[in-house]
Amino acid sequence: MIRHILKIVWNRKRANALIVAEIFLSFLVLFAVLTLASALIGSVTKPLGYEWRNVWNISLENERPRPPADGPWAKTAGGTEKEPDVTQLIMHELRAMPQVEAVGASATPPYSMSANEGSWGFGGKTVSLTIDFATDGFADVMQLEILSGRWFQPQDDAANYTPVVIDTDLARTVYGTENPIGRRFNEEAEKEMRVVGVIAPYRKSGEFANFGKPVNMMFERASAAKSDTLPGNVVVRLRPGTPSSFEETLSDRIHQVAPQMNFRIRHMTRMRQFAHRTALFPLVVLLTVAAFLIAMVILGLSGVLWQNVTRRTRELGLRRAIGASAGAVQRQIVAEVAMLTTLAVVAGLAVVAQLPILGLFSLITPGAFAGGLAASLAAIYALTVLCGVYPGWLASRVQPAQALHYE
Question: 362 burial class (0-12, 13-18, 19+ CB within 10 angstroms)?
């Protein structure tokens, strides 16, 4: 049967070449869209490593003035040897508010649409990682899961090294199965850093970022005792049930503490929504383009197949005359469509197979690649066979007598 279908397809190779080309292009488009969708779906199912609910982010301007010597800090702190940074002053005031559970600061908090990324050398290999500078209270605000070791603490001010906390992805990449706690993090640098804690995989940019690939996160401690300025994003965890109207109270308190400060208060819920829209926009565009392309292919394929059936009235009528049933004729037409699809898919697989060699797995996971490939194969066969059902039904309606009247 397969040999017979191949012979029929080959005898009409000129007419079928256009159909194969359309199916080939449609398969590549479906593969691109469904692989991206598979990567995003796989990314959504993975835990974030932090809790974004009931968290607000206060973005302070980059150039932050020193607080006045006779300002609120002098009254509450009673004077200190080192004049505090404005960020430190704001965090001190916010901790005293009954609606606030925890306060911290970060250079690039989750969903902030900014990141500090780079490559470091470890033992002769280069590792890509994401770096953030965070204060002692940041872990309580974001409810980070400490798997081993600890988070930063005030006693670190007396340490002769800079403490860092890494996630399990970075720990596995750099140290393998060895315990990283207490190990020097930057062996090739003059500034000594030591790992004091390991947290669960931390995906700072959200559910749809990095397509599920490891972020390799590293936190460096930010301390007012060892730096002139603290990070410019104050993150606040509010008690459950705190109304949105508290934002006005919070804003007034910050204005009282630092009247010269420009700042912006954003709910992390809204930051997350904006990050999702930004991440999903390319997929929506691709889906729209793919939908129009697939619709055009379906209409064109159905029309070409219908025209082929009309031109083959004599052949189909003779088949019916020698005893072929209506169902057998319909199955023949559908089988021809499936054979054309197979030829197009084989060419498409030859192209797709080159992508891992070109570094596709640096963008998405092998699981997303396999899922997108399987979904695109199922979709292209379903669409093309569906296009062949109606022309096949028309072919099954051809009567033997019609072949005698064909001119």
Answer: exposed
β pairing state of 125-134 and 217-221: parallel
Q: End-to-end alpha-carbon separation of the chain, Å?
A: 29
Per-residue pLDDT band for 369 (boundaries 50, 70, 90) equals: confident
DSSP character at residue 184: B
Enumerate residues 6+ apart whose C-beta is below 8 A from 368: 35, 38, 39, 42, 211, 212
Amino acid at 141: V
User: Minimal CA–CA distance to 202: which of 186, 185, 219?
Assistant: 219
Question: For residues 99 and 95, what is the distance between their CA atoms, to the nearest angstrom?
Answer: 9
Within 121-228, residue ranges assigned H as helices are 138-142, 168-175
Q: Which residues contact 33 (CB under 8 A, 6 or more apart)?
A: 283, 286, 287, 290
202: nearest Cα among 241, 245, 169, 154: 169
Query: Which 8-state DSSP code applies to residue 323?
Result: T
Burial profile 254-275: b = 16 or more Cβ within 10 angstroms, e = fewer:
beebbeebebeebbbeebbeeb
Of the candidate ranges 82-91, 264-273, 280-289, 376-385, the one whose mean pLDDT is the lowest: 82-91
- Any idea which of 123-127, 154-158, 273-277 has the lowest mean pLDDT? 123-127
* Length of the chain in terms of residues written: 407
Q: Which two tokens stand for residue 116?
A: 């500090």
Structure tokens at 118: 């780079």
Q: Could you tell me the two tokens for 57?
A: 């982010």
Burial of 353 (0-12, 13-18, 19+ CB in 10 A): exposed
Q: Which of 88, 100, 102, 98 is nearest to 137 (CA)?
A: 102
In 3D, which of 181, 192, 188 has the Cα closest to residue 159? 192
Our CA angle for 183, 185, 186, nearest 5°, is 135
